[in-house]
Specification:
Largest sheet: none
Helix content: over 70%
Oligomer: single chain
Strand content: under 5%
Number of strands: 0
Low-confidence stretches: none
Structural class: mainly alpha
């Protein structure tokens, strides 16, 4: 593992650990209280967006590493930023946290499962992986190190020393978020010779992909007949994938393949823009209605 891969892996582990510090056993009770809304938030993340992305990669003639990155991002669970954006947009924050908590657990099984069969069943990406001599099932190991271990540790620390974690949450969360943005920015600066008009197709692809995630979240919320506040949480969860986790997997398993890094990094920046923009629209709507 290179120094770059090690640093990014550590940053992501800190991010997952900081998110776990926000979770309590009581948060999971929301699953029992609002099971329909939680399921409505999980379906876009683990079914609609991954399958839709896989079908798109079969139809489009894109470079294999671009298609693999799209599938990987789509298969990742929502990130911790979705909770903040939902809160800012006056959605159901408790529901957002419940969805994120369950999604993080399900991701241990469903992210490698979805990624493995989708990549293997796409002739272009399957041939590319064989050429790189990469076993897609190795994603399990990445998720164990990057997700399961820090999450379990964070839950334990929060349960064992709740007063200590209250003081640790905000500074640790801010540090991990800053570190991730810094890593993405430094990577883009290092590859700045690529930041030209030739990057426009990837930017357009990421914007369309993210818009599909938000739209599928909205459709799922309508199908599950959720309230306005619940619908906002599900929309954000559907469109804010954990691109940081995808970057970590790319660094560990794909030797930081440049094409994959560009897609995941652009996702990491754009979904913040789209999420906050949508949340701002909702806040202004509430202000007009006097809510």
């Amino acid at each position: 593992m290179t120094t770059q891969q090690l640093v990014l892996s550590l940053v992501l582990m800190v991010m997952v650990f900081s998110v776990a510090l926000e979770l309590r056993v009581q948060d999971f009770k929301g699953v029992a209280q609002t099971p329909r809304a939680v399921v409505g938030g999980l379906v876009p993340q683990f079914v609609l967006l991954p399958v839709g992305t896989w079908l798109a990669t079969l139809a489009l003639d894109l470079p294999p590493n671009t298609e693999a990155a799209m599938i990987l991002v789509a298969c990742c669970p929502g990130g911790s930023l979705s909770n903040y954006v939902t809160h800012y947009g006056r959605g159901n924050t408790a529901l957002s946290i419940s969805i994120s908590a369950v999604a993080a657990l399900l991701a241990l099984l469903l992210t490698p499962f979805n990624f493995t069969w989708m990549v293997a069943s796409n002739p272009a990406t399957a041939a590319w992986l064989r050429k790189l001599d990469i076993d897609a099932s190795a994603i399990w190991w990445s998720l164990l190190v990057l997700l399961a271990v820090p999450m379990a540790l964070g839950l334990f620390v929060n349960h064992r020393w709740p007063e200590f974690t209250k003081k640790l949450r905000k500074p640790l969360g801010r540090f991990s978020l800053f570190a991730l943005f810094a890593f993405i920015a430094l990577g883009l600066v290092r590859e700045r010779h690529l930041l030209n008009v030739q990057l426009l197709p990837q930017i357009g692809l990421v914007i369309a992909h993210n818009a599909a995630g938000l739209a599928l979240g909205f459709l799922a919320a309508l199908a599950f007949r959720l309230s306005e506040r619940d619908r906002r949480a599900v929309v954000i969860e559907g469109g804010m994938q954990n691109s940081g986790l995808a970057l970590g997997i790319i660094a560990v398993q794909f030797n930081a393949d440049l094409g994959m890094v560009i897609i995941a990094s652009l996702w990491g920046m754009w979904h913040i823009v789209s999420g906050l923009t949508l949340a701002t629209v909702w806040r202004r709507k509430d202000a007009r209605l006097g809510h």
